[in-house]
Amino acid sequence: MEPIASLSGIAQGYGRHQVITGLDWDLPVGVYGLLGPNGAGKSTLLRTLATVTPPQEGTLEICGRKVHSERSARAARTTIGYLPQEFGYYPSFSVYDFVRYSAWLRGVPHGQAHDATRKAIASVLLDERAQATMKSLSGGMLRRAGIAAAIVGSPRLLLLDEPTVGLDPKQRLEFRELIRSLTDSAIVLSTHLVEDVAAVCDQVVVMQSGRFLFRGTPEALADNARSGVAGDSPLERGYMAALSGQGALS
Amino acid sequence: MRILLMELRRSPLRWWFPVLVALDVAVLFGRSQWWIGVWPQASAAAQIPAFYLGPFLAAYAAWASGRIHRLGFEDQHTAGTRPRWQVEAAHLAAVAVYGGVAYAVGAGVAAAVSYDDAGPGFLWPGYLLLGAALIVLCIAIGHMAGRWFPSAFAAPVICGLACFVVVTMNGGPMEAGLFVLSGGPAVEVSPEHLAVRWGLALTAVAVAVLTPRTLPGYSGARGKVIARLPAIGSAALAVACLAGVLTAGPVQTARASRSAPMCTRAEPKICVWPEERKYMPRLEAMAKRVSELPPAITSPSAFYEEGLRGGKGQDTDFKIFEGSMWEVADSMSIAVSRASTPRYCPAQNSDAEDRRTMAYFELDSWLAARISGAGQPSDIHGGPPGVDQKAIARLIHQPEPAQQSWAKKRLKVIEGTRCA
């Protein structure tokens, strides 16, 4: 399957501090869970995929086109939805305006923007709060508004950094349903919650110190579990085993 | 457009809008009210609130433009396809719309209160555009400051104060001409000078929105230079416009087109610009009082407001300064005095010179009081040295023979002074 995003030999960092090194990754349509401890480089990888920061080394391709210039990055961004871990918003924006503004930023055509905005808000079940101001929303609702802003315009590559933080169990279930419904995109979820990965991801990647320690299906990660490794579920044990250097980089 | 509406809806400035309008109207009426009923003066008065709105909006723009950074909105903007200047332009435009509408409301109020007295015509756009240029310039400076120094407090306060101080010290009509204090009908805002000031304001806007705070990450060395070019070009144009503003001279120039003056029916004729029609009843009364002066006093046949007969001032020209009829009477008294007395020549000795000068001063003061119909107003200080204005005010209420006798004595001193 043709990858929507493709990383080749990507290295990234800030100044002399190297955060990720030598990553190769093809992302065809599917849901990818990005697991790893704090400081593993997950957010940096997402920012690189979102073309917010250019890689120090290596090449990035989005939808078959190499991103090598500002112009090509701008073209790629029309196909990328990105929700940063700490996303910004104007407190007096209504939910509708926030998502509509995101659609404008993304370059969703003017004629489609209203419908795309409505659809995105409906997808996160915020229709009834569409005119509520962002500052009046609870933490979970804010997160959903952020997700709506990321998915507006149906991007081919959707990058969600800790999207389920602040969601209650019901909302997390609904979020999983939403992710499952986006069948035409490559979706990368950065998360600490392995159960989210188990529930919705086709592939899981475990990162540490800017490198991939494991790449495979959730089942393969669960199979990676070994006795003596901490964790409440096979997947958690597999994750912990991967972090301790056991298991294959499939 | 849709994004501008969104910015307008979300801008906290919507809560400040009534304050902006109140500030505008308070400055408009708090400073003076003599401008009411004279279109060019009302226009200049409506422009003066820009002097206060500008620094206020500069402070707000500095606060607002730093919010993208303070609210952690940078990555979402960077990850968007929109060129950053479009985002910045939408922010800046929203501030300008609120400021512009508040300013327009003030201008509308100035027009409404002037309408009855002023007669045909309307506010002069030159003055209103001059104020608008100052507002836009201040907003651009504030926006720029906020982008580079996104602090929520220091940048707005420093920027607002700096704009106020710089405009106060260097923006006056005799300096950079970013505002004027009055607008007599003899002068108008020069279109060329106005264009240069708008050029400065718009290039400042261009610098504010086009200057990249961070250079596009994907650009190479050449791309980074190219990314800076629009800002560098705008900055160069802004410097050129600033040089033009500072060197072009006064923003107000003599009015090119002279309309037919409006003159009193009573003799002598007192003629003013048609825009000053509201003063006609008082000028008619003054003309009548001039005609009633004692026979020993000779009056010119006509008096003209400054500028009606070209740029070169003449003896019988007068100026209506801040609506003061006393100033008119004072100017006319000097013309009447000159027409009634011999041509000046140096006296034989200083004692004679002093006596004659004093006689002139007293005669002029009496004439001014007679023409105005009252003594020197209490809010006008100064006047000819050594003249007791209170005594003059009492004198004009004495019987005519007593006044004629008093005037003849002064005329005798003047006429009796031998030339050196």
What does this molecule look like?
The complex is a heterodimer of chains A (250) and B (420). Chain A has 250 residues and is an alpha/beta fold. Helix content of chain A is 36%, strand content 25%. In chain A, helix 3 runs parallel beside helix 5. Chain A is globular and about 50 Å long. Chain B is mainly α and 420 residues long. Chain B has 2 domains: 253 residues, no CATH class; 155 residues. Chain B is 62% helix and 4% strand. The longest helix of chain B has 35 residues. Chain B is elongated and about 95 Å long. Chain B starts with a helix and ends with a helix. The relative contact order of chain B is 0.09.
Considering the chains and any ligands shown, give keywords for the structure.
heterodimer; A: 250 residues; alpha/beta; 9 helices; B: 420 residues; mainly alpha; 2 domains; elongated
**β-strand number of chain B:** 6
Strand content of chain A: 15-25%
Strand order of the largest sheet of chain B: 3-4-5-6
Total DSSP helices of chain B? 16
Through-space gap between termini of chain A: 18 Å
Inertia-based shape of chain B = elongated
- In whole angstroms, the N-to-C terminal distance of chain B is 79 Å
Mean pLDDT of chain A: 90
What's a quick, concise take on this entry?
The complex is a heterodimer of chains A (250) and B (420). Chain A is an alpha/beta fold. Chain A is 36% helix and 25% strand.
Please describe the topology of this protein:
The complex is a heterodimer of chains A (250) and B (420).
Chain A (H helix, E strand, L loop, with lengths): L4 E10 L2 E11 L2 E6 L6 H8 L7 E6 L2 E2 L3 H8 L2 E4 L11 H12 L3 H14 L15 H13 L5 E5 L7 H13 L4 E6 L2 H7 L2 E6 L2 E6 L1 H6 L10 H10 L7
Parallel strand pairs in A: 3-8, 3-9, 6-7, 7-8
Antiparallel strand pairs in A: 1-2, 1-4, 4-5, 9-10
Chain B lengths: L1 H9 L2 H19 L7 H9 L2 H16 L1 H4 L3 H5 L5 H35 L6 H24 L5 H17 L16 E3 L1 H20 L10 H27 L4 E3 L7 E2 L5 E4 L7 H12 L10 E4 L11 E2 L6 H16 L9 H23 L16 H7 L4 H17 L4
Parallel strand pairs in B: 4-5, 5-6
Antiparallel strand pairs in B: 1-2, 3-4
